[in-house]
Amino acid sequence: MKLNAKLKALLASAAIAVGLTACGGGSSGSGDAQSSQSSGAATVAAIKEKGVIRIGVFGDKPPFGYVDANGKNQGFDVEIAKDLAKDLLGSPDKVEFVLTEAANRVEYVRSGKVDLILANFTKTPERAEAVDFADPYMKVALGVVSPKGKPITDIAQLKDQTLLVNKGTTADAFFTKNHPEVKLLKFDQNTETFDALKDGRGAALAHDNALLWAWAKENPDFEVAIGNLGPAEFIAPAVQKGNADLLNWVNGEIAAMKKDGRLKAAYEKTLLPVYGEKVKPEALLAE
């Protein structure tokens, strides 16, 4: 399958994910996504006794987490989640995916709605006060995508302009803190944010550069004219604050995946078809 056709299918799947979330539908087991609340930290022993691990993932952020045309969870984060379930419970089907949005990832962990988050979650000092992050599996920086006819190549060009961001993301936090002169228009869903850019409701859109590079390949009228903004940041799983038992287990798993090649295999399955040879795995995978 050609690259553009694959990306088109992924991005089309994101629209389905929005519909599933809006309707309260979802999945349990290997492909589906809603979950009931629970209280207390989920220890490794408690998860084993329950026979399922609840992991928060995105439903509309291909190629990292999305729901395909068959209603199944797919993406880089999803592959890692399946590996965790296989090692802990003996089968990749023993994971219950819970669809999350950027703004509610912390709350889902704190409330116990999920056992851990694997939703492209960037580690920040503020978030680390609310949840415990495991070791990172990916590294990114912020980027800015804009129309090719009116490229934003410098943040100074955004003064008094509207910049599109997702609520609760590092892009939201970065511009809120460092650039109050930029007007932010915020959305919950990735699909809403990118549709707003296409509709001309903002001069540009800020998000993780890894996502923007993929999106711009499928949307050639736009370009990532600012590819690396701010310091490099790390993406990692997160668990409830103080849940050392589960945190230590996840850390061991991430280390094993890096050593035995499973992390790179997940990259090759989900990200290589999108980025091709232009982006090297070591540019995105954490050591």
TrEMBL record:
CDD domains: PBP2_Cysteine (cd13694). One of its GO terms (cellular component) is extracellular region. Gene3D superfamilies: Periplasmic binding protein-like II. GO terms for biological process: amino acid transport. SMART domains: PBPb. The keyword Signal applies. It comes from the Bacteria. Residues 1-24 form the signal peptide. It holds the Pfam family SBP_bac_3. Residues 52-274 form the Solute-binding protein family 3/N-terminal domain. InterPro entries: Bact_solute-bind_prot3 (IPR051455), SBP_3_CS (IPR018313), Solute-binding_3/MltF_N (IPR001638). Keywords: Signal, Transport. Belongs to the bacterial solute-binding protein 3 family. This is ABC transporter periplasmic binding protein, amino acid. It comes from Neisseria lactamica. The lineage of its organism: Bacteria, Pseudomonadati, Pseudomonadota, Betaproteobacteria, Neisseriales. The gene is artJ.
